[in-house]
Structures are given as C-alpha cells and as structure tokens.
Amino acid sequence: MNSKAKFILGMQFILLALYNLAHPVTPTFLEIIDAPVYVFGVLLAIMSLMQLVFAPFWGRMSDRFGRRIMFIGPLGYACAQLLFAFATTPISLFFARAIAGSFAVITFTVNMAYLADQTPKADRGKAMTLLAIMSALGTSVGYFLGGQIGVIDYQYPFFVQFGSGIFVALLLWFFTRDQRSTTRADVQQQNQKNQFRTVWTTYRTTPLIPLLGITFFSVLAYVAYNGSIPYYLTENYQADAASVGNFVACINLAAVAVNFGLLPVLKRYVKDQFALVGALVVTLVVIVLILIPSQLGLFFGLGALFVAGYTLVLAMTQSLVSQLATNDQGAVMGIRQSFQASGQVLGSLAAGGLFALHAYLPFVLTLVALVIALMMSIWLIQSKKRKK
If 0-12 CB within 10 Å is exposed, 13-18 middle and 19+ buried, where does residue 61 land? Predict the structure, then answer.
C-alpha cells in the first residue's frame, strides 16, 4: 500500500471523528429548543437525502475534474455545523442539515474512489476493509470526544467541528494529488447523460445490482438501530451526553477490535460473499436478542456485536463492489453511495416515527431489513453457483 493510500485512510479516520462529534449532544440540543421527538429522524433523513441526490454528482465530478475536490467536503460541512449550532427552530435545523449532507457525501464517495485508484485491483478488497475499519474507529473517537466536550457546553462540539473542518480541508487541498481516471470516465462524460443508465448497462449482468440491494437494506437496518441509540439511552437509562458518547464509543471500539482480529482470517480463508452471509447472520441473531429486555451491561455487549457484524457487512459489500468496478470507480462508488443514502433516508424517517410510538420499534425495523439483506446475499451465492 503506497503513501497516498495510507494518507486517505488516515483522513477517513479524522473525518469520521469530525462528523460524529455532535451526535452525543443532539438529544440535549433538541430538548433545549423543544423540538418534537420525531425531529431526530427527520434530521437524519434530510442529511441522507442530500447524500442520495449529490453522491452521483460528486462521484462524476471527481472522475472528470480530479479526486482533489474532496477538500470541499469538510469545508462545506464545517459551515453547516456552525449554522446548526445557532439554530433555534426545527426549520433552521433542517436547512443546516441539508447543507451538511450535500457536502459530507463528498468524503464518502470520493475517498473510496481515490483509495481504489491508489490500490492494485488484487488489493482493493483489503483496502476497502481498512477503510470500513477506519470509519468505525473514527466514529468511536468522535462520539467519545463529542460527549466529553458536550458536557461543558452543548454548542462546543459544533464549534470544534467548524474549526477542525476548515483545517482538514486545507490538509486535503495541499496533500492530495489531483488524481483522476482518464479512460472510462472521459468516454462517459462525452457519450452518456444518465449515470445510473450507464452503470446499469455496464454492470447489469454482474453481481453489482444485488450487491447494491444488500447495501440498501443493511444500511437501513444499521441506521434504524444506530440513529435511535442516543435517544433510547437518554429515555430508558437517563444518560447524559458524556454517557451516550462513551457508550457508543466503546461499542465501536469493541467492533473495531473484533474486525481487526477476524478480518485478516476471513480475507485469507473465506470468500467475501460467504463472509458477508456470516456477518449478516450474526447481526440478525444479535438484534433478536436485543429485542429481549435486558440490563445495560448486556445491552452494551450485544451492541458491540451488532456494530462488529455491520462493519463486516460494510467491508464485504465495499470490497465486492470495488472489485467489480473497472476504470469508473468514481461513478460506481457514487451509485453505491446513492443506495447507501437511500437506506439512510428510509431508516432515519422510519426510526424517528417508530421511536415516537415505542422505543423498541426501530429495532424491529432493523430485524426485518436484515432478514431481507440475508435472503438477497444467499440468492447471490446461489446464482453464482448456477452460472458455474
């Protein structure tokens, strides 16, 4: 792995930490401005919807103008979070979150494309696995730091996001070479107007389409679970911002530890599609156990296993999609990000509405989505066997 690939993995860690700083204080923030409980789901959905809309655009722009445009992501996100910090009504929160989603998606789309550019095809699976791990580790650190800072003042995490976002944008501008694909992307720009149609035409006979479906349902499951956790802990266990941050941080650290131990073994001895099925089975069993009322300690352990399983699912789907893509990594990753954002939109809206009815209903949605994702992954394996 070259220095450019290592750099972007490090930046993924920093950016995910930056993007998750404010999550532990958001329940307190919404309570202070007297926002209805379902607003948290709408906020997540708006951000995800903007990612859905802008992911193909930014992926295409990175293929055409260069991966260096990724510096725009943290810069735009920083400004959006400053607006969020001073919002006083749900409408102003929605506006700030729409801006944040439009720019944050640059990170998730272009970083994957840049990493794929810098990695030989044989090593892309390993690179995408490391990207997923760095995302989980960054999320953990972001939640922990955000919780600690938020105890001092609920607005402070937003101010840290603003200053750090500008600094990270400068780093990306000065240290990222202007890398882009010069073959397939140029042809696509000249001859194709519809990016979705282009990807469908190129990859419809490959496993890419069912993999995108698995991505959608697995992300929906995770968002329904993870988006509800801060509010579930606040309502059921009277947790403050620091406790929420520590809880989610420890869960993600445990998941990272599990993946560091398991992933090298899985990559060596198990095919990605079989590892994907196994990870989905684990998350499915765990969410069933979570639906059984338990003490906080057991809930913590199950949460760690769930996030570990989801991280494996994310790593395997990213790996399989990246291996299928040819010279248009930006376009394919943009489409993948759109499916991921679609799952985030539906999961966020449903989680907010279901949580308002009962705190356990978002977990039921997670269960249903995981069952569908598992069935699709099994079908994918069976279809490959039939082709052989």
Answer: buried
Q: Which residue has the tokens 């272009």?
A: 110
Distance from C-alpha of 125 to C-alpha of 123, rounded to nearest angstrom: 6
Q: How far is CA 131 from the centre of its chain?
A: 11
Query: pLDDT 10s per residue in the chain (388 long)?
Result: 778 888 888 998 999 999 999 988 888 888 888 888 788 888 888 987 887 788 778 877 877 777 778 889 999 999 999 999 999 888 999 999 999 999 988 877 787 777 877 887 777 767 877 887 788 788 889 989 998 998 899 899 999 999 999 999 999 888 876 555 444 444 344 333 466 676 777 777 777 888 889 999 999 999 889 888 888 888 777 777 788 888 888 877 877 777 677 767 776 778 878 888 988 998 999 999 988 876 777 888 888 888 888 888 887 887 788 777 665 666 677 778 778 878 888 888 888 888 888 888 999 999 999 999 999 999 888 776 656 5
Topology (CATH) of 3-179+209-387: Growth Hormone; Chain: A; (1.20.1250)
Q: Where along the chain do its domains lie?
A: 3-179+209-387
